[in-house]
Write a structure and sequence with these properties.
- 37% of the residues lie in helices and 8% in strands.
């Protein structure tokens, strides 16, 4: 009588396979985390550039007399929301609006439950660069994150 041969994996082969998969997963986790962090850093740089360009465009429009401002005003926007909601173009006979941003980007490192405007630290035009503080206008924005970037700098210093 011939014995039927059974083909399959032994318990040892299965344990070794699971162990190898575990080691590979452990090696891939830090790489995945770095890729995600680098993506957020790119989003932060893009958002900062977008907002800063809009602030500069607002200031240019104010200096050209297209945005209403008092003599004592700096010409910078009073808040970030005005960049999205727009202002009346004083140079337009029809009273059309000037918009500087389609939407206010958010800081990718901030709490997701916050509104986009609350995710940024504001610096007023009369605020020194080494100790930025908010005030009557918005001269610059910064991240409120205390984390360090992959290059060793702090996000709040970008």
């Amino acid at each position: 009588m011939q014995r039927a041969s059974h083909r399959g994996f032994t318990l040892i082969e299965l344990v070794i396979t699971v162990a190898l998969i575990g080691v590979l997963a452990a090696l891939a986790a830090p790489v995945t985390e770095t890729v995600v962090r680098r993506g957020k850093e790119q989003d932060l740089k893009a958002a900062l550039m977008q907002i800063r360009d809009a602030i500069d465009a607002y200031k240019d429009a104010a200096d050209q007399g297209r945005v209403a401002k008092a003599v004592t005003d700096s010409g910078y926007p009073a808040n970030l929301e005005v960049l999205v909601s727009g202002v009346v173009d004083k140079g337009s006979a029809s009273g059309s609006m000037i918009y500087f941003l389609r939407r206010l980007p958010r800081d990718p490192f901030a709490d997701p439950s916050l509104a986009p405007g609350q995710t940024w630290g504001l610096r007023a035009s009369d605020s020194p660069p080494d100790t930025p503080r908010s005030g009557k206008d918005v001269y610059d924005v910064r991240s409120l994150s205390d984390d360090k970037a992959l290059n060793g700098t702090y996000y709040r210093e970008w």
